[in-house]
Amino acid sequence: MAMYDPAHPGELLRRDIAAANWTVTECAQRLGVARNTLSRLLNRRIGMSAQMALALERLGWSNAEHWMRLQAAYDLAQARRQQAA
Fold first, then answer.
1. Long-range pairs for 42-51 at CB < 8 Å and ≥24 separation?
2. The whole model's pTM is what?
């Protein structure tokens, strides 16, 4: 089976932040989350939570379901990669 390698949601969010010309600190403030939490997501240390997806939705950056689908696709691809190894 061909491996599908979806991007981590944090990578996509990093592009959105850059396109908005915001710093990580500014984005965290707008989202109402700790800067450290956002940084960990952007650096692929944590996954997209439902709370973060809702915060992004409130900013108008797609809807929460979109962000959660991205996380699910990433997680499934990682699990398949581990199973194949």
1. 42/10, 42/11, 42/13, 42/14, 42/17, 43/10, 44/8, 44/10, 44/11, 47/8, 47/9, 47/71, 47/74, 47/75, 48/9, 48/10
2. 0.91
Q: Which two tokens stand for residue 85?
A: 């190894």
Amino acid found at 64: A
Q: What pLDDT digit, counting tens, does each position of 71-84 carry? A: 999 999 999 999 98
DSSP string, 40-75: HHHTTSSPPPHHHHHHHHHHTSS-HHHHHHHHHHHH
Both tokens of 47, joined, read: 């996954």
